[in-house]
Specification:
single chain, 391 residues, alpha/beta, Rossmann fold, 2 domains, six-stranded parallel β-sheet, globular
Length: 391
């Protein structure tokens, strides 16, 4: 590398990618000290590490094929601006993080413009689950890929792109280190009160479809469990809307608008009701028995249902190839189904213990107890940059 601190351009399009980006920035700074600079797009976690995002993450955190259409013009404008900024700044590398709808197109435009910096994509698309053709798309657009799961690299190396397994970031999240008793003391929750964590998602579409169903589920549970308390950790992208909705719930509820108390809340809780997504792995780390739910726009669901090749949405279930964690998707996502499943976890210790044991099996596959995934990802980024400077 040259004496100038290398500029690494990071692009995250949603909160889960922002967490990955923030941890990657920490790992890069640990390896390079002050001898590194960052630019790009991210959220509050990346901002805390010094990134000045070109746009707010809420501009890109849109769920579903049909939900994107009303905002397409704005997203295309952001895309063009991002490409122009990368070409102007000439970073040592571009690291795009998940969010394939946006990041793939940025990479494609950079490639077509000619002489791009090294293009690295973080989080391999789930070609083992659906969209097998994406392996070829990745190989055409990027120079290097970093995968979260150990069985993913062969799908991509077969298409001619280098791909490294770096491990799943959930294992370094700290989700297993929450202080439950302290959380209950801070919020005056009696030790014997049932506490349910409710996680309705981090995207507007998730909130729209899931919060009304979760509300009815909670009301039914409160009738069977007098004294039930609710805690709702939420992302900055939807915090205001979630807080406004939860304020109308006739059940004592706490909304956590940032991540500062989330893991303490997990440790304090007896069970969780969560939207399908990365947070389900954090719940597994916290050993919190969980019911997974998801509902989409009907047209989006019809499209996804036609192309998905796996039987489960939750990665714990995918890894174990069995439904260790109850999941209710689309038309099965009803207050009746969710209430019965959550109620079982609250009332039946053997059901909760069985789920916790399954968590241990799956987390071992994801690299729990090994080297930090972010450190491994940082090594990969620096290795790609080093190779490019030798050309």
């Amino acid at each position: 590398m040259s004496d100038a601190a290398p500029l690494i351009y990071l692009i995250a399009g949603e909160p889960s990618g922002d967490l990955l980006g923030g941890r990657l920035m920490i790992a890069l700074k640990e390896k390079l000290g002050s001898h590194v600079r960052f630019a790009g797009i991210g959220g509050e976690t990346m901002a805390a590490q010094g990134l000045v995002s070109r746009v707010a993450l809420t501009e890109l955190a849109v769920m579903g094929v049909f939900e994107i259409l009303p905002r397409l013009r704005r997203i295309l404008a952001i895309m063009a601006d991002t490409v122009a900024d990368i070409r102007r700044q000439r970073p040592a590398a571009v690291v795009t993080i998940d969010s394939s709808g946006f990041t793939y197109r940025v990479a494609e435009r950079l490639r077509k413009a000619g002489d791009p910096p090294p293009l690295i994509h973080y989080v391999a698309p789930m070609v083992w689950a659906w969209r097998a053709h994406y392996a070829k798309r990745v190989a055409e657009r990027f120079d290097h890929l970093m995968a979260l799961l150990p069985f993913e690299p062969p799908y991509f190396t077969a298409e001619g792109i280098t791909c490294a397994y770096v491990g799943h970031p959930v294992v370094e999240s700290g989700a297993d280190k929450g202080d439950g008793p302290a959380f209950r003391r801070r919020h005056a929750i009696p030790p014997d009160a049932k506490l349910l964590t409710v996680l309705p998602g981090s995207r507007r579409g998730e909130i729209k479809y899931l919060l009304p169903i979760f509300r009815e589920t909670v009301l039914a549970l409160s009738r069977r469990h007098p004294g039930l308390r609710i805690v709702v950790p939420t992302a900055a992208t939807v915090a205001d809307r979630v807080a406004a909705e939860i304020a109308t719930w006739p059940v004592p509820s706490i909304v956590l608008p940032n991540g500062s108390e989330k893991y303490d809340a997990f440790a304090a809780s007896d069970a969780a009701l969560a939207a399908s997504g990365t947070v389900a792995l954090e719940l597994a780390m916290a050993k919190l028995p969980t019911v997974i739910a998801y509902r989409l726009n009907m047209l989006t669901h019809a499209y996804i249902d036609r192309v998905v090749k796996i039987d489960y949405a939750n990665l714990i279930n995918v890894i174990l190839d069995r439904e260790a964690v109850p999941e209710f998707l689309q038309y099965e996502c009803t207050p009746e189904n969710l209430g019965a499943a959550v109620g079982r976890l609250l009332d039946d210790k053997s059901a909760a213990d069985a789920q916790i044991a399954a968590y241990g099996e799956a987390l071992a596959v994801l690299g729990y107890g090994g080297q930090s995934p972010s450190a491994r990802a940082a090594d990969e980024v620096l290795s790609v940059i080093a190779r490019s400077t030798k050309k």
